[in-house]
Amino acid sequence: MAERCKLCSNLVIDEDEPRGTGLHGAPYVSYLEESHKNGCRFCGYLLQIQHLFGTFVRWNFIGESYSGYCDRPTFESLKISDPTCPTPRGERILVRPFQVWHKSLEIYREHSGLPSPFGIPIAVGERADSASTWAFLQDCLTWCATHASCAQEGPLRLLPTRLLHLESSAGVVSLVETKPGDAMPYVALSHCWGGDLPVKLTTANYEFFQRGLPRGCLPNTFQDAVTVALRFDIAYIWIDALCIIQDDPGDWATEAAQMANVYSNAHFTISAASSKDGSISFLKQQRTMPLVLGLEDDTGLHSPPEQLLARKRLETGIHSYGKVFDATLDPTDLRGWIMQEKVLSRRTMIFSSEEVQWECQKARVCECSGTTSWDSDADQQMHGRASQEPRKASHGPASLETLRSSPEQRHESWYMLVSDYTLRSLTKETDKLVAFSGMASKFSSYDKSAYYAGIWESSLPAGLCWYVYQHHRVQRLLPQSYIAPSFSWASVKGNVDTLPAASGDSTWAVNDLSVNVALATADPHGAVHSGSITLNGVLMTGEMRYNSSWVGVRVNRKSGNAGAYTVSFKGTVEFMSNQESPQFYHDCELVPRGGADANGAATVARSVEASPTSWGPSMVYLLPLCVAGSTTSGGGGMYGLVLGRRSGGSSFERLGLFPFSFDFEEFQGSVGMSAYQERIWAFFAAGTPQVVVIE
């Protein structure tokens, strides 16, 4: 048995104790070198694998802010933590730089079922068309067939309008039109267009597609998808570029409205996650193979030494951590259209750049870990997400299960999906609502209320409490084209999150809501021409200023300058806490607009261009939405919409969300409900009750 230092010896698995808790802590390189000289082979392995970490960002705390710079990690910051994947196949040691979660290594054995701290992961082949990958996918399909939640709900009642028939022996792909009563199984492809495709369905080549075209004429991504379908004996496939007439706006609108059915009825969906465009073969991309460290025998059973391997911890898909700003992503994780394709599918084969992953309504597994149930204890430890709120970009088929729950949980799930979706990009910004219509269509089968350009009637007025997440990688400019009325999150760019809805002692400060939306097509969940929301509330006047040199919320994404918008409202300052820097979440870039009301007073408007310089004061308005109070602590707060008056003065447009707290410190612990209510009424007395129309 190989000699080990005291710390490394503590890593050996004992039959009674699954694993010791020994850590290298933060060993200096000199320690590892000295330990290796004294005979510890494992310390020698750690010295071998430094280059596998690659470059990462090291953060320094300077004054009141963090600054980051790229650096090579050293073992001054190395730590060996507890294994994160206990499975029937063994355990794995995880090695990572201290305080850098997503840059880590796995050290493991290649085979053998003997107890070992190194674990026995399933092999990941050199390419996605390796025999081990096909075997993994076949196991997933076989396993999924036992899941009641993944079964087709009744007979296949609705096929796509068109499918591609795959003639394996002739190597021909032909377009077929389905008929009522047809029930052949098909698969669907989810992929990145990456620009214009050399082959797509048009009115001119429609008949040629029906006669059939050689498989070799298809882009590489499409050829690979055909290979996968035929591998599992499926003779039909749906590919958007080849099954929707691309130069027929009417056909495109009709088929786009059917996305929920196309993907939910497919036998499985093929996600070409690693292909940035149609020219990339996701089956033939070479994967990074593990580093062979040497031969090791630490079992104590005098067995022959076995090969010890090290590889970077996989970071794509279900292995990525944190917000997608900082995670390792495949190209499909960045695209807006693809999100609903993934969520609406009953089961998905995800051909990631590092391995193949599988998602269905019961399981979420990968090649490197095998078929582990999504809701199992092992999965919770491996992915750290099974019982937690799904991270952004993690939503899959099981996300739809939450729609069957209570209305509160259902709407919370909806806005988590919105938050994920708004992180992604669209080639055509006018597709904002269309590319999410499949999600809305599915949601409507559980929530029967009306849908208004991304907002559900059953969630009003809570559905108005959205804001654009402040992050340096979020573009904050207004779309160039009209997408939705300003009260909808679809009207702006950037990642949208929501504040919690009113609860407990909270009270909504608006009532008698009515909404009108003019649809652009026959799809009730698709694009809109216009819209407005009318409500009764209290409107307060105030002022807004912008200074490009102020420290605060970063704006002006186009030029990269920092700056801040600040707001103040007449008659309310004595009631508000933190008046030096009240928080204001602006929806997009804002600019002054002259002559917005009958008296010619200047107000503020949304802008498609960045604010070029400092300006203000300009008139804005505050519409309180929700008043939250506590009779025990004497504190309270409010969510309010900041509005700008539109030209002509008869309506308003939303500028942002303004949450703030009331300053009730003098009442804490010594007042009754009457004094508390008096202060609330005094606050509202500074405004004017009126009907407000937001367009």
Automatic annotation (TrEMBL):
Where do Basic and acidic residues bias regions lie?
A: 380-392
- Annotated ranges, domain Heterokaryon incompatibility: 186-341
Instruction: Provide the residue span(s) of the region labelled Disordered.
Output: 372-407
Give the source's domain of life in one word: Eukaryota
Identify this protein by name. Answer: Heterokaryon incompatibility protein-domain-containing protein
Organism of origin: Lasiosphaeris hirsuta
Lineage start: Eukaryota, Fungi, Dikarya, Ascomycota, Pezizomycotina
